Structures are given as C-alpha cells and as structure tokens.
Amino acid sequence: MRKNSTKLIILAVIALICMLLFAFYNIQGGFSYAFPKRLERLFAMVITGTAIAYATVAFQTVTRNRLLTPSVMGIDSMYEIVQTIIYFALGSSSIFVVSRYLNFGVSIIAMVLFALILYRFLFRADKHPIFLLLLAGMIIGTLLGSLVTFMQVIIDPVEYESLQARLFASFMNVKTELLFISAGIVALAFLYGTRILHKLDVMSLGRDNAINLGISYDKMVLRILILSSVLIAVSTALVGPITFLGLIVSNLAYQYFATYKHSVLIIGASLISIIALVGGQFLVLHVFNLTTTISVIINFIGGLYFIYLLLKESRKAG
Amino acid sequence: MIEIKGLSKSFGKKTVVEDVTLKIQAKAITSFIGPNGAGKSTLLSMVSRLLDADTGEVLLDQSDVKKMKSDAFAKRVAILKQANHLNIRLTVRELVSFGRYPYSKGRLNKEDQKFVDQALEYMNLTDMQDKFLDELSGGQKQRAFISMVIAQDTDYILLDEPLNNLDMKHSVQIMKILRKLVDELGKTVVIVLHDINFASVYSDRIVALKDGRLVKDGPTHEIINSDALREVYDMHIPVQVQDGCRICVYFNSHN
C-alpha cells in the first residue's frame, strides 16, 4: 500500500497536468486574448473545486454520514428557486439580474439561510435515522424543483432562455468581478477552516467522545454547517449548481486514502475535485466540442456513483 | 471533589432523574446501581456534561462545571459511554493518541507519546497497538477505549457500563485495572454497573438509584445487604460471604 503522502503527490501531478493541458492545449485566436480567459476559468474551477471538497468533507464529518452533502440536501435547488423567482417576478431586465453583485449577494444569503433553517429542523437533539434525513432532503429538493418547473412553464419563453443559461454550471462565461469576491470569501473561510482540521478529526469519533476530549461539540457543529453552506453557496452562485461533485470527490477520497486525518482527506478531495472539473472541462471543450456541459457529465457520473453508494450502504445495513 | 446538587432531567413528560444530590468521594471507586430505567446513565451523562441538566448543578472542586472551559474540563474529567461505534477506521494506537488531544491539540510531542505508551502498556495492548479496531474482539476494543481515557490522564474517570457485552474473564480484567487506577495512581472512578456482584466486590462506595431518585448512598458494605437491596430492586436478594466478598445470590429468589 502506498503512503498517503505519495498518493497526494500523484494526485497533485495529475491535477497539474490537467491544468497545463487546459491552459495551453490547442490555443487559438491569439494567445494574448485566449490565455487570460483560460486562466480565469482555471482559477474559477480551482476555487469551486476546493470549496466544494472542503464543504462536503466537513459536512459529512459533522453529520456522520457519507451520503449527505449540502447540495443533495437542497442548497442547489434553493439557488434555482431564487433565480427563477427573480426572473418570474421581476424579469430579466431587473436590477437583481443585471447587477451581478446584487444577484450574487441575494443568492448566497438565500442559500445560507435555507441551509440553516433546514439544519435546525433536521438536526435537533433527538436523533433521526440517516435515511429519514436523506429522504427529507430529497423530498424538500423535489418540492423546490417542482416549484421551479412550475414557474418556468408559465414564464415568458425569452426570459426562460436567459434563465436557463444561469441554471447550468458553466465555466465558460465566468464573470471576473465575481471571481475576486468569491476568491476572497473562500480564502476567509479557509483561514478558519484550516485551523479546525484537528477538531474535525476528533469530531469524527462522535459526539460523546468529542465532548469528552474537550470539543464544544454543538457549537462547532453549527459553525461547520455555516462554513460549509457558505462555501457551497459561493461556488454555486459563481458557476451554477454541480450537485453531485461533492459526493463523488469526498467518497473517492475516503476510499483512496483510508485515513481519519482531515488534513489529508481535504487536500486529497480538493485535488480530485480539481482533476474532475479541469479534466472534465477539457473533455467538454476538445472531445465533445461543447455539445454538452460539465455539469451534465458530472451529474450523470455522480448520479450513478450515488446509486452505487446507496446500494452498498443498504447491503451493509441489511 | 465532584458534588452533584439537585440535578433533574426530563425527556418530554417523563422525568428520568429527579432532584439527585450527592458527593463523589475522591480516590475511590463509586458504582451507580439500580434497576433498568433508574436514570444511572443519564446522571452520569449530566455529570460529564454530555447532557444538559434541566435544573441543579455539578461542582468540580467548588466551581460550576458549566462555566468551565471545555478543554480545561477535559483535562480533569474523562467519560466513556457504552456505545462506541466508530465509522472511521483507526488503529489502537491512533485511538489512544486521541486521548492526548486536550493537551496536544493534535500535535503529539514526546511527552504525549510517553503517556500513550504507558496507557497501552497499562491495558496490555502494546502488542496489538498497530491493529485496526475492527479486527479486535469486543473485550479488546473496550480495553482500547479505556486506554484512550487513561491517556487523557484525568483525575476523574467516568465509565458507563464498561462491562457490557464482555465475558467473565474480560470483565474481571477490566475491574482489576480500574482498582489499580484508584489504588496505584490515585484516580477517582465512577462507574455504572448492571452486575451487582461486580459492584459489591470492587467498589468502595455504592450509589443506588430507582425511578430517577437517589435511594441509597454509602460504603459498599452498607448497601450490599438484603434489606437495602430490597428497597432498590423490589426483590429478595440473599447475600452470602465468600472469601471475604459479599455475593448476592438472587438467581432463584422468591420475593
């Protein structure tokens, strides 16, 4: 068995190769125009990838459940509903659409608020079985999804076209001004996030053991849930929802590294996440010639992987 | 010293612990006994701040436990609950190293390693320190968890039914180690026990609970007699003395 440090180096090298390929392969239409564009996209993918990886691993540690992610619980649907309501009620020429900052701010606040209400409702002191949580999350997600569809059906078709573009994750038209705000928020979150890695290790022993070892458990759980909601909200508002990415990368990291150490798990998951996004985007550009989008590919593979994990879990339980 | 003052706890309409006041004697083993649902584990959870009390307070050396910093408390009092299912894969040594977290915050120095070595040695786990917990038997796993609590190096060690699911040999082993912790290292051990004979043979003091209320609190020999036990368990429990141990022979009792 390889040592975890070696594994991390291997992943880092693959991630680097993906990034170099993405930045330099078959560059057309003038280097000075295309290259900065590509770097921007690359930067967006690195931010999104690491944010989703951290958020998912931390979230799964405090919920002690490797199938739940903030996205699966419906944060993504909340993004869709906010955008749809804005288009539905105010139209595409409203200030909430035109001003990227305002749209970004409103989306993030709505998603974090939604997440907190959901957690309050679901993670009260009395323990719910895992599958009830999962089911509740799915049902709320579906309910929001249906509301979204309902509004989209009766919306003006031209408005719908413009809305649709917002609801698919896309790295092709990342707005530079949002990129820097997002990077700032994610950097701030990581400043705190990297300081609590050892606490996350202890918390993976469960509530009783963590309290015994001097962790203010309930306070930490709340903080980490807020932290991961903010991270997911920022990355969703920046590029759009990539529901299953977090689930894939966290579970691949658990499988590949087989350790409890969050420093290793989170760096590993971030690298896998960058490989998936950058490598995936490379394929979309140069193999599929933009006939599909990255979120479709990731949600397709992620959905299959999710079903596989569910089947594996239920077999273990049964 | 730990003082419990007027602790109560209800879940919904059901009162599980009602106005319990007692002092835990230092450098001794105190056993909590009582019928199912008497509130023993709940009381222990409140003392160790795993559970918030509805009313009342717990004092550690005269200061309110709730107002203590949680990592300062973790250096004084350790608690081990009965269900210890982990969903991460750890070796014995990794688990025991977690016991040093209140001191090391995750970065173990030489002294921490020494405590880990000693704790492993104490529980006879040195040979299997690199084995994964899921490869161990129930008794070995329980020893690994107790070893973590020993590495934590606290004055007070609280254990919730540590003999659950253990066979006779391992139960005796663990009780002997607890006795050693008190006699050799001057620790204070509080333990919830179901088996009244282990309580009788190994503890210095016994606290008996029934329906959430404190019914008996005293030195072991005052509690282990038929009259006192009838009050706790509502049944006739003959007590015989065997090799200096008071043994309850309740297996064929006719009320």
From TrEMBL, chain A:
The chain crosses the membrane at residues 42-59, 79-98, 104-123, 130-155, 178-198, 264-284, 290-311. One of its GO terms (molecular function) is transmembrane transporter activity. GO terms for biological process: siderophore-iron import into cell. One of its GO terms (cellular component) is plasma membrane. Signal peptide: none annotated. It is found in: Cell membrane. Keywords: Cell membrane, Membrane, Transmembrane, Transmembrane helix, Transport. It is a multi-pass membrane protein. The keyword Transmembrane helix applies. Belongs to the binding-protein-dependent transport system permease family. FecCD subfamily. This is Iron chelate uptake ABC transporter family permease subunit. The lineage of its organism: Bacteria, Bacillati, Bacillota, Bacilli, Bacillales.
TrEMBL record, chain B:
The keyword S-adenosyl-L-methionine does not apply. SMART domains: AAA (SM00382). It is found in: Cell membrane. Keywords: ATP-binding, Cell membrane, Ion transport, Iron, Iron transport, Membrane, Nucleotide-binding, Transport. PANTHER family: IRON(3+)-HYDROXAMATE IMPORT ATP-BINDING PROTEIN FHUC, PETROBACTIN IMPORT ATP-BINDING PROTEIN YCLP. One of its GO terms (biological process) is iron ion transport. InterPro entries: AAA+_ATPase, ABC_transporter-like_ATP-bd, ABC_transporter-like_CS, P-loop_NTPase, Siderophore_ABC-ATPase. One of its GO terms (molecular function) is ATP hydrolysis activity. Its main location: membrane. GO terms for cellular component: plasma membrane. This is ATP-binding cassette domain-containing protein. Residues 2-236 form the ABC transporter domain. It is a peripheral membrane protein.
